[in-house]
Specification:
Length: 357
């Protein structure tokens, strides 16, 4: 085995998917599994193929293409609003795409028509997180423009909260989405089949019966892969939690003063750091760094270890209060949040270790 290594618990991820699917089905919500965090990994995808996964969403077209080539033929959604430069390929591999620009929609329609296809668009509305989406008062005009196009059809409306500004899905903004859908159906005299109301964080609203009755699609990644909902700072009941673990090897162990010494410039990302004097500490370096993980999303499995920071290839730990003795060459293990998993999956330096049981 080489290190850093990522242990991936395939069965727990599968079970989470099936559980989430059942919970959603009981509420008449179609579950779209968001798989962008595993970087197109074939082994994880194959294990999902085995349980007949039937709706996936990825941000990267090349991953969707790969899954098509592995034999996946059910619904595929492009999760990131598309680039003009990828529309040609999009039409080949994708059933639905999120959309927020009419220029792109027109081009998409043109390309789809040329291939004899019709692509369903899910119009994204920005309800406060200020990432993708049209502003609510633009919706009606936007839909009217889409209706003129022949190579696309309105598959649904959607929103995404939490990911940029950390805005929580709540009764107010979710109700707003529902109201917008009703208004659009009335003014355009159409039926909008899909209300894609959000991501993992939106499951917090499952107790709101009136809202849930209107929502019929959720795009869920974190809840399935990690079993957590970081936006609402909770773990999801009945799911397996932290299904990815980072293993990193200790390469230096020394007592060092907690304060640096000398005149300070910037660290390697150009920031100035502050330190507090905690006296002499037992410090360690593990062989992993920003090229491999987001260190802010690492939770040491040995009690008492603190993650102090990382540079490109060094992970700096404080072991002073560690509950277990650690030696040079030991492997330390970390639970990981979504962002740390995302980066570890993407890093070619991290060995992937698939665990079935
Ligand atoms: C990442 C993403 C999701 C999934 O979010 P999770 O928090 O992983 O459930 C859903 N929709 C969009 C548009 C996304 O970018």
């Amino acid at each position: 085995m080489s290190y850093p290594r990522l242990d991936i618990y395939l069965n727990r991820i599968k079970e989470n998917y099936l559980k989430m699917k059942k919970i959603c089905a009981e509420k008449n919500i179609k579950l779209t599994a968001v798989i962008k965090a595993f970087s197109g990994d074939e082994n994880i995808f194959r294990s999902l193929l085995n349980i007949d996964i039937d709706s996936i969403a990825d941000s990267r077209l090349q991953n969707i293409k790969k899954f098509r080539e592995l034999g996946y033929s059910k619904e595929a959604v492009l999760l990131r609003i598309p680039m003009l430069s990828e529309i040609d390929r999009l039409v080949e591999y994708v059933d639905h795409t999120l959309i927020s620009e009419i220029v792109i929609c027109r081009y998409l329609s043109e390309k789809a028509l040329r291939k004899g296809k019709k692509i369903g668009v899910i119009v994204m509305i920005d309800l406060g997180d200020r990432r993708e989406g049209i502003m609510p008062d633009e919706l009606i005009d936007f839909l009217k423009e889409i209706n003129k196009l022949e190579g696309v059809y309105i598959e649904g409306l959607g929103t995404n909260l939490g990911c940029f500004a950390g805005i929580l899905p709540d009764v107010t903004n979710t109700k707003k989405l529902i109201d917008l859908k009703n208004k659009a159906e009335k003014e355009l005299n159409i039926k909008i089949s899909r209300l894609s109301a959000g991501n993992t964080a939106t499951t917090k609203l499952f107790g709101e019966k009136n809202l849930v009755a209107e929502i019929n699609n959720l795009r869920i990644g974190e809840g399935i892969l990690i079993g957590t909902d970081i936006t609402n700072q909770r773990t999801l009941k009945s799911m397996h939690h932290y299904n990815f673990r980072l293993k990193a090897e200790i390469i230096e162990l020394k007592n060092k003063p907690s304060l640096p010494e000398g005149s300070t410039g910037r660290d390697f990302s150009g920031r100035k750091k502050r330190f507090t004097d905690r006296g002499l500490r037992m410090r360690a370096i593990a062989a992993a760094g920003k090229q491999d993980i987001d260190y802010t999303g690492l939770y040491p499995e040995i009690e008492g270890i603190e993650v102090l920071g990382a540079s490109s290839d060094h992970l700096i730990l404080d072991l002073t209060n560690a509950e277990k003795e650690i030696k040079i060459g030991d492997i330390v293990s970390f639970k990981m949040n979504y962002s740390a998993v995302l980066q570890a999956m993407t890093s070619k330096y991290v060995e992937k270790n698939y665990i079935e049981g």
